[in-house]
Design a protein that fits this description.
By secondary structure, the chain is mainly alpha-helical. The chain folds into 2 domains: 83 residues, no CATH class; 34 residues, no CATH class. Strands 1-2 form a two-stranded antiparallel sheet. The N and C termini lie far apart (38 Å).
């Protein structure tokens, strides 16, 4: 999981701590373990859609604090989720960077980029 300054700022504040506590209070058991018929205490709150997948700062903030994007997990299941996400980490980063570039081009130049980065508005 990327630990850039923006991410750290989003999860190291009162708003996140209160939301995290609310999620764990409302659903104290690990969701993945419960689906597998096990009972384990949730100690982690996982972002189903990673914060870093947001293209704009506003979208990343929405992903960080949206209760529907949060899942209570035990430490072991949380680690497995991140191992699974890590297997596609490079591809995800490349995709996000392309989306950020396309958004920049659209907003500032009124252009869109094709799959190879070529201008498709001409």
């Amino acid at each position: 999981m990327a630990r850039d300054r923006e991410y750290i700022k989003l999860i190291n504040n009162r708003r996140w701590r209160e939301l995290r506590l609310s999620v764990l209070s409302r659903e104290p058991l690990c969701r993945r373990c419960a689906q597998a018929g096990r009972v384990r205490q949730a100690r982690e709150v996982h972002h189903v859609q990673p914060i870093q997948t947001g293209v704009t700062p506003w979208e990343r903030e929405r992903l960080a604090y949206d209760p529907a994007n949060l899942m209570p997990l035990c430490p072991e299941c949380h680690q497995r989720e991140h191992e699974h996400l890590g297997s596609k980490g490079k591809a995800e980063q490349t995709s996000r960077r392309k989306a950020e570039t396309a958004e920049f081009m659209r907003r500032f130049y009124g252009e869109e980029l094709g799959a190879e980065g070529a201008d498709v508005t001409a």
